[in-house]
């Protein structure tokens, strides 16, 4: 059995943790369940323990916990903040080579998975073990949010330095469009493997979406971290544009993040914090509206069961993010027969959404508005896409994802490189394109 070190700047307990962290945690669960020694090194937010050992780390679904229960669990090692997590991890790796420090139990790992969320850990400078670079997507569109200086440095590291430093390393990404982006940065196609996202089963007590779960009126849903590059404002614009022709239209925003207050302000600016017939519904005495509910509901962070009940009630799911590696929310909505409308340029959505079959891909917010109106008006087309999306989601599982990653790690420890889609039916091409 192998000793495996997983590096990621966050885990799912981090206040800003998201889908990429859940991906690696599910992989960790599967590897530990198979008997491997797995350590997940990450940052330490305020109040988090320096280390713990957990079974069923991702734990959102019963199959995940059951699978992890067969192994010794995953050791979580934490240290550092947003920027210091990187040097702290490298220091821990170096100390671990001598059997001391937070990674002392690993000593010299057999393989390291270095997650590049914009920038990698550059762990190959601290370990003699083979390094697998995990990239969900390229951050070209997101870097400007970090400010002029940080964005220039970050993009240089991601686009120039990292490909050179890891010129001999195996890469793993989660979709074929993301693989294409890596090739554009100079990564050799024969060193890029695609290991797609899995999917948790529905929580106990939650019915899959259907006629008995849908809301009475048209409901749009957005499932996302509330940060600028997710562009939830576009979904608010869609609702503002369609309220006149679709009375009672509601947008359910599921998720939290530091951009939440600004989104609430924007919703108020667009008049979405009040009923569209507010003035007409006022009594002669000027009393408040009889229907005070607005057109957008910010649910914040919710538990898994609540999240799925909101999705099951939705008519459509909107994904206005500018960039996604895969778009896990697309698959979670699909579990309820809810098709997604997203952006073609968001890379991974071209893999998670089959345009015209399981949802629609568009170019801008105006086209998203048109596509939303089209599907709201055509229930037959909407239902057909929703059922196709449900079938696609049914083929995804986290055990399959973990098994595929294990296949890649085994090859790397044997000195081989792998390419193409691993452990799943190929879609729209089975390997990254040639340069």
Strand and helix layout:
Blueprint: E1 3-7, H1 19-33, E2 37-42, E3 51-54, H2 62-68, E4 74-78, H3 85-96, E5 111-115, E6 131-135, H4 148-165, E7 170-173, H5 176-184, E8 192-194, E9 219-223, H6 232-242, E10 250-254, H7 260-269, H8 278-281, E11 296-300, H9 304-313, E12 316-319, H10 328-334, E13 340-343, H11 349-352, E14 359-362, H12 365-377, H13 379-394, H14 398-413, E15 420-421
Parallel strand pairs: 1-2, 1-5, 2-4, 5-6, 6-7, 7-8, 8-15, 9-10, 9-12, 10-11, 12-13, 13-14
Antiparallel strand pairs: 3-4
Helix pairs in contact: 1-2, 1-14, 6-12, 10-13
Protein name: Glycosyl transferase
GO molecular function: glycosyltransferase activity
Biased composition (Basic and acidic residues): 273-284
Number of strands: 15
Q: Main beta sheet: strand number and arrangement?
A: 9 strands, mixed
| Helix amount | 25-40%
CATH H level of the largest domain: which superfamily?
Answer: Glycogen Phosphorylase B
Spatial strand arrangement across the major sheet: 3-4-2-1-5-6-7-8-15
Q: What is the first-to-last residue Cα distance?
A: 36 Å
What is the CATH level 1 assignment of the largest domain?
Alpha Beta
Question: Whole-number average pLDDT?
Answer: 90
Helix and strand content put the structural class at alpha/beta
Describe the protein in words.
- This protein is α/β, with parallel strands linked by helices.
- It folds into 2 domains: 3-198 and 398-421, Rossmann fold (3-Layer(aba) Sandwich); 219-394, 3-Layer(aba) Sandwich (Rossmann fold).
- Helix content is 35%, strand content 15%.
- The protein has helices at 19-33, 62-68, 85-96, 148-165, 176-184, 232-242, 260-269, 278-281, 304-313, 328-334, 349-352, 365-377, 379-394, 398-413; strands at 3-7, 37-42, 51-54, 74-78, 111-115, 131-135, 170-173, 192-194, 219-223, 250-254, 296-300, 316-319, 340-343, 359-362, 420-421.
- It has a 9-stranded mixed beta sheet, sandwiched between helices.
- Strand 6, helix 4 and strand 7 form a beta-alpha-beta unit.
- Helix 1 (19-33) crosses helix 2 (62-68), helix 1 (19-33) packs across helix 14 and helix 10 (328-334) packs across helix 13.
- The protein is globular.
- The two termini are 36 Å apart.
- Residues 58-70 and 276-292 have low confidence and may be disordered.
- Belongs to the glycosyltransferase group 1 family. Glycosyltransferase 4 subfamily.
- It holds the Pfam family Glyco_trans_1_4.
- Residues 18-201 form the Glycosyltransferase subfamily 4-like N-terminal domain.
């Amino acid at each position: 059995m192998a000793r495996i070190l997983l590096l990621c700047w966050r885990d799912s307990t981090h206040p800003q943790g998201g889908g990429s962290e859940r991906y690696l945690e599910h992989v960790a669960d599967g590897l530990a369940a198979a008997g491997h020694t797995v350590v997940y090194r990450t940052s330490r937010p305020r109040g988090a323990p320096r280390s713990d050992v957990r079974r069923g780390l991702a734990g959102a679904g019963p199959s995940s916990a059951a699978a992890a229960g067969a192994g010794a669990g995953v050791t979580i090692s934490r240290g550092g903040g947003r920027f210091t997590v990187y040097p702290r991890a490298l220091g821990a790796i170096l100390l671990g080579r001598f059997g001391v420090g937070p990674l002392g139990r690993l000593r010299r790992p057999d393989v390291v998975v270095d997650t590049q969320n914009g920038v990698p850990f550059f762990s190959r400078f601290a370990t003699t073990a083979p390094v697998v670079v995990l990239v969900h997507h390229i951050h070209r569109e997101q870097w400007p949010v970090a400010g002029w200086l940080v964005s220039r440095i970050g993009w240089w590291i991601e686009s120039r330095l990292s490909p050179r430093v890891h010129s001999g390393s195996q890469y793993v990404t989660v979709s074929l469009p993301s693989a294409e982006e890596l090739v554009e940065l100079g990564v050799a196609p024969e060193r890029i493997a695609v290991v797609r996202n899995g999917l948790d089963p529905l929580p106990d007590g939650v019915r899959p979406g259907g006629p008995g779960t849908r809301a009475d009126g048209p409901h749009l849903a957005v499932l996302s971290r509330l940060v600028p590059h997710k562009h939830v404002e576009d979904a608010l614009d869609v609702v503002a544009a369609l309220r006149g022709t679709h009375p009672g239209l509601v947008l359910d925003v599921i998720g939290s993040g530091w951009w939440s207050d600004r989104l609430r302000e924007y919703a108020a600016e667009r008049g979405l914090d009040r009923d569209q017939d507010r003035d007409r519904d006022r009594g002669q005495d000027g009393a408040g509206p009889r229907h005070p509910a607005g057109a957008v509901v910010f649910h914040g962070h919710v538990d898994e069961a609540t999240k799925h009940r909101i999705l099951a009630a939705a008519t459509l799911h909107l994904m206005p993010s500018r960039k996604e590696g895969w778009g896990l929310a697309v698959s979670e909505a699909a579990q309820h027969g809810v098709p997604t409308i997203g952006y073609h340029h968001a890379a991974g959505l071209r893999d998670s959404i089959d345009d015209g079959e399981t949802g629609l891909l568009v170019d801008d917010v105006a086209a998203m508005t048109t596509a939303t109106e089209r599907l709201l008006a055509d229930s037959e087309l909407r239902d057909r896409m929703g059922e196709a999306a449900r079938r696609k989601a049914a083929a995804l599982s986290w055990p399959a994802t973990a098994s595929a990653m294990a296949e890649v790690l085994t090859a790397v420890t044997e000195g081989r490189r792998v390419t193409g889609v691993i452990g799943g039916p190929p879609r729209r091409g089975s390997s990254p394109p040639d340069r």
